[in-house]
Amino acid sequence: MKSLKFKPELIELILDGSKRTTWRLFDDKNLEVGDEFEIINSETKENCGIGVIQDIKIKKLKDMDDTDFEGHEKYPNPEIKLIRLKELYGDKVNLDTIVKIIKFGLLSSKF
What we know:
This protein has a single domain, classed as Roll (Sulfate adenylyltransferase). Helix content is about 20%, strand content about 40%. By secondary structure, the protein is an alpha+beta fold. About 10% of the residues are buried. The mean pLDDT is about 95. It is globular. A five-stranded mixed β-sheet has the order 1-3-4-5-2.
C-alpha cells in the first residue's frame, strides 16, 4: 500500500474532516485515482489512518486557482506558497513546477 506523510498539525485536520486535499510535487509514487494510502505522521512515522484518492488534477504552480485550495490550508499570497513549497521540496521548485492536486477521503482512522 502507498503512504503519504503529513505534518502532525495536518493529521489533526485530516481526522476532523477539514483537510481533504493535498498537493504533491515530483510524484515518485505514481499516485492515481482509487489508490488507498496510509496517512503517516511525518514526525513520529505513526500510521494514523487510511485514505483513498478520489480525484487528481495536474497543473503548474502558477496556474493554480481558488478551487485548488478547497480542503487545503491557505497561504496569504502566492509568494508565501512558493516559499513554503521550497521548504518542503527544495530550491528546484518554481512557478513552472508541476503539482498534483489530490482530493481524498478518509476510509479509517487509528484514533
